[in-house]
């Protein structure tokens, strides 16, 4: 695990990253962490997959089971990150 940009940091900004709500430098920092962290890149892949599914199928409601699984993972990640401090 890297120390410069923590998993907790990335997870808190994951949705903003995908919504392009972050500034260039912040975005680049988080993407660098994603590239070096299999755990977080897995989370990002899941989120990207959900968004692609929603866009492609134009479903009326989001696939709840998938989203719930991602949120559960994020909650676990956050709990792990906190316990390290
Ligand atoms: Zn990470």
Describe what is shown at a glance.
The chain has 85 residues and is mostly helical. The chain is built from four helices and no strands. The relative contact order is 0.16.
* Total beta strand runs: 0
Bound molecules: zinc ion
Task: State Rg.
Answer: 13 Å
SSE succession: HHHH
Task: State the share of residues found in helices, binned by percent.
Answer: over 70%
* Percentage of β-strand residues: under 5%
What overall form do the CA principal axes indicate? globular
Question: How does this model look, in words?
Answer:
The chain is mostly helical. The chain has one domain (7-83). Helix content is 76%, strand content 0%. Helix 1 (7-18) packs across helix 2, helix 2 (24-36) packs across helix 3 (38-57) and helix 3 (38-57) packs antiparallel against helix 4. The protein is globular, with a radius of gyration of 13 Å. The protein starts with 6 loop residues before the first helix and ends with a helix. The relative contact order is 0.16. The model has no long low-confidence stretch (mean pLDDT 81). The chain binds zinc ion. Zinc ion (ZN) binds next to helix 1 and helix 3.
What are the defining features of this structure?
mainly alpha; 4 helices; binds zinc ion; 85 residues; 0% strand; globular
Q: What topology emerges from the helices and strands here?
A:
Elements (H helix, E strand, L loop, with lengths): L6 H12 L5 H13 L1 H20 L6 H20 L2
Helix pairs in contact: 1-2, 1-3, 1-4, 2-3, 3-4
Bound molecules: zinc ion.
């Amino acid at each position: 695990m890297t120390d410069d940009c923590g998993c907790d940091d990335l997870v808190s900004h994951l949705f903003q990253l995908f919504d392009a709500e972050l500034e260039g430098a912040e975005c680049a920092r988080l993407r660098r962490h994603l590239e070096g962290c299999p755990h977080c890149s897995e989370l990002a892949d899941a989120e990207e997959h959900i968004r692609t599914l929603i866009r492609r199928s134009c479903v009326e409601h989001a696939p709840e089971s998938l989203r719930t699984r991602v949120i559960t993972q994020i909650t676990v990640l956050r709990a792990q990150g906190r316990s390290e401090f």
